[in-house]
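User: structure tokens for Cyclase family protein, please.
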Amino acid sequence: MYALLELGGQPYRANLTEPLDIAIPLKAGLQTVNCFYAPPMEVSPVVVGDFVGDTSQGGAVNFKNIRLNPHGNGTHTECVGHISREGHTINQCLRQFHWPARLLSLFPAKIDGGDRVVLRSQLEGLLEGEPLTPALVLRTLPNDDLKMLTNHSGANPPYFHHEAIAYLVERGVEHLLVDLPSIDREEDGGKLLGHRAFWQYPEQPRTMCTISELIYVNNAIRDGYYLLNLQIASFEVDASPSKPVLYALQPA
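Assistant: Done. Predicted tokens:
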């Protein structure tokens, strides 16, 4: 089964039977990704009288409660409601689920003070003269599957300079997906300059645009153009655990 689309005036097709999952699985406990000191995800059975919602404990079915923090426990997608005073929710803001996307890889630059930062000049060098896509997927280097296990809390992980984010907005990027805990510095005094630049909040809020963080793009997936399918749970809050999936584009 194929999907047909046009990019840069050229027709492409995507084989929908060959998905490339770039989400980190949500798991209970400590052996998974975590950031911002969020408590780990917890899974516990419902217990009511003689009923136990756990087949391993003799229950007829598995019927469990899940406690999680979307921002800290794994791959998630967030909307402008993450920083706005208005009640924007991811379920209301994300109304379309497929877009042409560009996958890029780069080493964040080391700046004075030791921070590792994605700079505007780096993105300009990779994107100038290339076809525009509404979605951009960024893989930071070096890259390995330890990203699926890392506790980023207190580690000052890489982030985006807000001018780099402003450049992506100029390029028409509406959906940004990154393998970082946040596009902003872990400790920035609440400025959130990257988030504010991306959503242009509060001046002209881009309410239909999203940021997905804590993805993981295996090295076997090459840089290039893809069809992105971005899946969320229909949470009426600012963010949801998400499952972004890529499909390689081939000339039609």
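User: Anything notable?

Assistant: The helical segments are 70-73, 90-93, 120-127, 162-170, 193-199.
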